[in-house]
Structures are given as C-alpha cells and as structure tokens.
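Note to self: keep these together.
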Amino acid sequence: MTDLVISIEELRFSWPSGGEVLNIERFDLNAGERLFLRGPSGSGKSPLLGLIAGVLEPSAGHVNVLGK
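Structure:
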C-alpha cells in the first residue's frame, strides 16, 4: 500500500480580479513519486504551489497534504 502525500479533489481557484486559473478534478501524489511542474507563464503553477502550501485558499475543493 502506498502512502498518499498530496491529494487534490475538485480544486478550483480564481484570483479576485479575473477568471478561473485552476480547475483540477483529481490529483494524487504518493510517497516516493516525483513530479515536475511545467507550463507557460500564467498557467497556474504558482497558485497551485500556494494552494498546496496553504498560503492561498481555494475557491472550491480540497487540498490534503500529509493527511491535513
């Protein structure tokens, strides 16, 4: 059995000044897995990392990191 490190469900994020930046139905990252985050400017990489770190609040959905 693998240990879930990051679990994202029905995540939505929008900046107050604009449209939706992120719309992620489901994403899981297990212990020992690696992820390379790549995309053009404005594609939502920084907001995703902010949501995972707990610095930003999602418009909807859940981000679970190490069970919290």
